[in-house]
Amino acid sequence: HASGNRPVTRKAEVTGRALCIGHGDVNGIAFEGFEDNDRPVGKIVVDDMVARRGSQSVGFRHDCAWLTPRGDLLIHETRTVRLTGGPSDGALLDLDSDLTAATQIAVSLARSSDPFIAIRIAPTLLPAAGGQLRNSSDDFGPTEVHGKAADWCACNGVVLNETVGIAFLVHPNNLWHPAPWICREDGVLSPSPFLWRSADLRPGAPIRFRYRIVVHSGYVEAGWIHARFMDWLRR
Question: What pTM was computed for the model?
Fold first, then answer.
């Protein structure tokens, strides 16, 4: 989890309420926000952080340790975040996560119905409150989006009397792309590769996940979101 004393943009503050990474079953242990299941709960701690500020962007890198309830190290994670200005009076947030086993024994990332990376979007961006939710395959609404594989999912709606939107993009080089999405009525939105499959992490063989989040003003068509997806891949 990352937070600051001041929101970078008002739009980012009102469209997305939370962004977190975790996993519901790592060698039988749950990490980050899944305490309601029947597994023991580990924690992800930040060992080091380096912040950077450029003329066009700000960002930071976290070196994270995934620890068992006894404090044993299971996974090294390097998490890199970069924020820049975006089109339509918006912002772009890029997040890369590199996971590597910390022991000489493979670490199991098992199948899990819990999100791997998730945002919790503002309620008024959901259809139940008059918003619009769709994915890259033109499925609309939480029921149709949930469990479907897609390159991205996006929402539009009115928040604090302003029409805004947010799109969650998944890089094609990610493991098992396109991933199936978790979409819940409480606003949780997650491209979760482990919903269908499991993987083993091995020492010296990191797995990288890359994501981009776009926030913007006004209603936009699916073609606009797809163009932002292609812009990201070209860069």
Answer: 0.87
